[in-house]
Design goal:
Strand content: 35-45%
CATH architecture: Sandwich
Number of strands: 16
CATH class: Mainly Beta
Shape: globular
Largest sheet: 8 strands, antiparallel
Number of helices: 4
Structural class: mainly beta
Order of helices and strands: HHEEHEEEEEEEEHEEEEEE
Helix content: 10-25%
CATH topology: Jelly Rolls
Distance between the termini: 153 Å
Number of domains: 1
Length: 272
């Protein structure tokens, strides 16, 4: 009896042990990865947009390479010269528009002549520089002059097509090519631009270039020995010759630029 009771206790203990909850196993630790920063995107500096090159075949842009702050204050084109029959200029034997109406003709018959614009280039009392920009053509290359006349006389003179500088008051004449290398020579019936300018200190500069081909140019600079007064635009033609004008601009300006577009020599400062 006693042995049977013990057997029952052993069996009961075994049953209780089989019903016990299974021992929980420790969780497996998964190592965590530290967050890594994405590589920085390098800053891209935009390339600066290059400024467009100035169109130096535009005559007013070319004038701005030689004159600081040039302003058009007067002038005429072929339409206005035709309407007033060349009335802004003094007498010459022939004044008429070309047959196709694209330019105005000033011509001498048996004797050569000078003809001037009736008004001076000075329009106000600011004492700024005075300049004129002219688009012209000749029917031959013998002898032509485009001049500024005031307290001195400064000529752009063409002999057989070659440009000469004349400082009448200094009794001085020289080829443009002696001042700065140039191969420009006028050709008959071809268009050119001429710029003649005097600043308020009496310095003078002049340039001439082929229309549409500014690299074919000539340049001169000088001192007029006069720092005040008015300057007048004057042309001269030889007997049985003509000059055609398509347009001209009267300009004032603040000062001269360094002129490097035409000349890289010493600055324009000497007055001797």
């Amino acid at each position: 009896m006693k042995r049977g009771f013990l057997l029952l206790i052993v069996i009961a203990a075994m049953l209780l042990a089989s019903c016990a909850a299974p021992e929980e196993s420790a969780p497996t630790m998964v190592p965590t990865q530290e967050a890594t920063e994405a590589p920085a995107t390098p800053e891209v500096t935009p390339e600066p947009t290059p400024e467009p090159e100035p169109d130096l075949n535009d005559p007013l842009i070319m004038a701005g390479e030689l004159l600081n702050n040039p302003r058009v204050i007067n002038g005429e084109d072929v339409i206005s010269m035709t309407e007033n029959e060349g009335g802004q200029f003094a007498y010459i034997d022939i004044k008429k528009p070309s047959d196709d109406g694209t330019y105005f003709i000033f011509a001498a018959e048996n004797e050569g002549t000078w003809f001037r614009r009736n008004e001076s280039l000075k329009y106000d009392n600011r004492n700024n520089g005075q300049a004129v920009l002219v688009k012209f053509m000749t029917d031959n290359t013998d002898m032509y002059r485009i001049m500024l006349l005031g307290n001195n006389e400064m000529y752009m003179q063409f002999e057989n097509g070659e440009p000469y500088h004349v400082n009448y008051g200094h009794v001085f004449i020289a080829k443009y090519s002696e001042f700065r290398e140039s191969s420009l020579k006028l050709e008959a019936s071809k268009w050119y631009w001429a710029l003649l300018a005097v600043d308020n200190e009496g310095f003078y500069r002049a340039a001439v270039w082929e229309d549409g081909n500014y690299e074919n140019n000539a340049y001169y600079q000088d001192y007029t020995s006069t720092e005040d007064g008015e300057w007048n635009l004057v042309f001269s033609v030889e007997p049985n010759s003509s000059m055609g004008l398509m347009e001209y601009f009267v300009l004032d300006f603040d000062s001269f630029t360094d002129g490097s577009i035409m000349y890289d020599g010493p600055a324009q400062t000497g007055k001797d």
